[in-house]
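Person: I have long wanted to understand how a fold can be written as tokens. Underneath my words sits a plain record pairing an amino acid chain with its backbone structure tokens. Those tokens are not coordinates but codes from a learned vocabulary of shapes. I should like you to check that the lines agree and flag anything odd. The protein I mean follows directly.
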Amino acid sequence: MEPTLIQKPAKAEIVKNAKAHVQALLEAKLPAQLVYHSPKHTATVVKEARALGEAAGLSEADQEALVLAAWFHDVGYTEVYDGHEFRSADMAAEWLQRQGYPPERIELVQHLIKATHRDAPRQTELEQLLVDADMSNMGRESFFAEAELLRAEWEAMLGKTYSNTEWAETQLAFLLAGKYYTKAAKERYQEQFKENVKEQRKLVKKTEKKKKKKEEEAEGTFAEPKRGIETMFRTMYSNHMKLSDMADKKANMMISLNAVLMSLIITYFGAKLGSKTAALSNVGLIRNPIIAVPMGILLATALASVITAILCAQPDVTSFKWLKRSPQIATNRRVNLLFFGNFSKLSLDDFQHGMTEIMGQKEALYTNMVTDIYYLGDVLTKKYRLLRLSYTIFMVGLILTALSFGIALLYKV
């Protein structure tokens, strides 16, 4: 009777079984917050480990150990986050023992998994190949997208919060400190790795510029003004110009109206008084002298109203008395070098000196702009005071004229 031969499973079967076991374990027990160290990450590391092993010309047994270690290298995350590599090695050993895997090969797989710890030495080729596979994301185009997943995972699991600038700097430091150990990994990832370093440097500069811009906008000081201050000055200047133009138009209207009214009255009386006969026979003033009262009130009203309107419309140039013993022209709050009424009193040398100070000091520039707005407001105040007086005189005069004319009619009757 021939002895019964125990048929050993195919060499790839242990890897196939490990894949099924690990995928089921990760799907069932891996915390949802682990968006980077996900089943997809494990599958990617296995794929890269297999490719690196083939490129390195590993033996079939070593290739098998490398792939098994790749499958189990992150299973410890199902129970612990920090130091998961050691728990992953224990869990791998427990499962491989149940499969009847040789003890010396189990020990090898454990050493490979522990080598993925950040502080572990990587001495053997197999250890270096697994670490290179685990860090293959540094040399892939997906590095930046996966980095954001890692950022979200750290925030959820470790409570670490990073600004965009801090995270960009952290990732750049990570890339600069990283390296590939094996020749196979360097040939596979080095080119893209260098490109990722360049892109990360650009990203750091970009985030630093944005951070600086936000700080400048938040501070909004005279040294580094934000856009809102400039918009405010533009709006104030525009409003002052519109109000000044409006006042001038209203004043011109009163001047025209009262000038026409005065012309008619003077022309009428001049024509009548020029002819003595006509004056004695036809002028109502001779036959009814009381009519002179409303006509006199109307003439006085027109005269007073037109005078105040002219005063409102006439140019008003503010000025100052500059003392030569005070050389700080640009920073003097009572001096406005932006207005010709002020700087026309200065010599060319003094004006050039003052403008040079303004262009060199932003505080001096804003001081002069504020002073300019103040003087514009002072001129507008005077304009609208006189304009209001002109309209008030005209209104009161018309009322008095109408009342006196009515009294004259009643007296005549």
User: Anything to note?
Assistant: The chain has a mean pLDDT of 81. The chain has three domains: 9-134, 136-219, 227-412.
